[in-house]
Amino acid sequence: MKRKxxxxxxxxGELPESTxxxxxxxxxxxxxxxxxxxxxxxYDPKVALYDIKNxxxxxxxxxxxxxxxxxYIVSLLDNKNIKKILINPLYNPVKEFNNYTTTTKDAxxxxxxxxxxxxxxxxxxxxxxxxxxxxxxLLCIFSNNYKDNFxxxxxxxxxxxxxxNILDIIKENI
Length: 174
Hints:
Blueprint: E1 4-9, H1 19-28, E2 33-37, H2 45-59, E3 63-67, H3 69-76, E4 83-87, H4 93-96, E5 101-105, E6 111-115, H5 119-126, E7 138-143, H6 147-156, E8 160-163, H7 166-173
Parallel strand pairs: 1-2, 1-3, 3-4, 4-7, 7-8
Antiparallel strand pairs: 5-6
């Protein structure tokens, strides 16, 4: 029996070996499934989409799981033949980018908050041609911490679940 390949697309600022990836790998990798993750161009969403599409094609991916900004990027994929699972996906990246900040020190040692999303990324997500593709092969899973996003997504995609146990929902739906 051929193992189904699952691609995990991590959140902005993370690496392919993120905590969620390790959780998926530890709990889903078996004789039936292989969980993979790879670098993508986080700071260039257009290239990121290209990278992910090519990775899917070259590695014969069956299921794509994306988290937060990675989930939003996965929702932009136009391939209707691949099952897509989004974990706490961003609903409106431009609005939600306000949460992507880091704290650093100025020359005098004072804490300052720096916006970590470059303007060209904001410009990309503001373009109407890059909108999510909702179809029957898309499942959105939200933890209770993301209830506001759940309410927004549910209005557009009825395949949306609010839960405290994301891993169990993923296992039931792969």
